[in-house]
Design brief:
The structure is a single chain. Helices cover about 50% and strands about 15% of the residues. The protein is an alpha/beta fold. Helix 1 runs parallel beside helix 2 and helix 7 packs parallel to helix 8.
């Protein structure tokens, strides 16, 4: 599933990469978030299901695609993602071999900008996202340019996400609403190329940081680290009590 806005050329490349997968996609869904370029024609030309979502915002577009997906596992890329040929095969293998996994995500190899910009995107943005936001969430965060989740997980999360808030950080919003018992796995070998163009200016980097602040504010105080840790402890105690009750019968 790919949400896209006015990115026909990038979309053409990622759809070609998906056509070359060692494990073909069961369905290709492209959500057009109100494009004025040839995005829709590019998607239809590649055989994708094209959905229109006029409400601007990545979360709005992404949620539309997740809702429409029919497979047991929903794989997500962005228009500027460049999946390696075994990307879908690896996702299927991990979900099949580990039934407990609800969400699988990995990092990005940034391309298309100056070397120092690629480094900032990989280390100061994505690195901080996984290494700082992860402990805050008490779970692995989701990287929207490279992840997959079981459709059953989305169905449980769907009513909770902020679909109509245009400046929400969609990856973070999804991660904050995942049930605490959902297992999210980070696989550092599940990689895709990701364009560093949003980070070619400090304003681009700051915009994404600002979206994260907006998202945390929308969830405060329930999203505070102490509140999430307390909720997770309650969940663990409840699960332990159920196991003890079962064993004592």
């Amino acid at each position: 599933m790919i949400p896209v806005l006015n990115d026909g050329e990038m979309l053409r490349r990622v759809l070609a990469d998906l056509a070359a997968q060692t494990r073909p996609a069961d369905e290709l869904i492209v959500v057009d978030n109100g494009s004025t370029d040839d995005t829709g024609d590019v998607a239809r030309g590649a055989g994708a299901i094209v959905l229109l979502q006029p409400v601007k915002g990545i979360m709005s577009a992404a949620a539309t695609g997740y809702d429409a997906a029919t497979g047991d596992v929903i794989a997500r890329l962005d228009a500027d993602s460049r999946p390696y040929p075994d990307w879908l095969e690896r996702i299927e293998r991990e979900f099949d071999s580990s039934p407990a996994i609800g969400v699988l995500t990995g990092p990005g190899d940034f391309y298309g900008a100056r070397a120092w910009v690629n480094w900032i995107a990989e280390h100061l943005y994505i690195g901080a996202y996984f290494n700082v936001v992860g402990p805050w969430l008490t779970n692995v965060p989701v990287f929207g340019s490279n992840f997959a989740m079981r459709r059953s997980v989305w169905q449980e999360t769907s009513p909770l996400v902020h679909r109509d808030t245009p400046h929400v950080h969609d990856d973070l919003d999804l991660a904050l609403h995942l049930p605490l018992d959902v297992v999210t796995r980070y696989d550092h070998t599940l990689r895709v190329g990701v364009s560093a163009r949003p980070f070619d200016s400090w304003s681009g980097l700051w915009q994404r940081v600002a979206w994260a602040f907006v998202t945390f504010k929308l969830h405060w105080p329930d999203a505070s680290p102490w509140a999430r840790r307390a909720a997770r402890r309650r969940l663990f105690r409840a699960e332990a009590a159920k196991r003890q009750d079962y064993l004592s019968r």
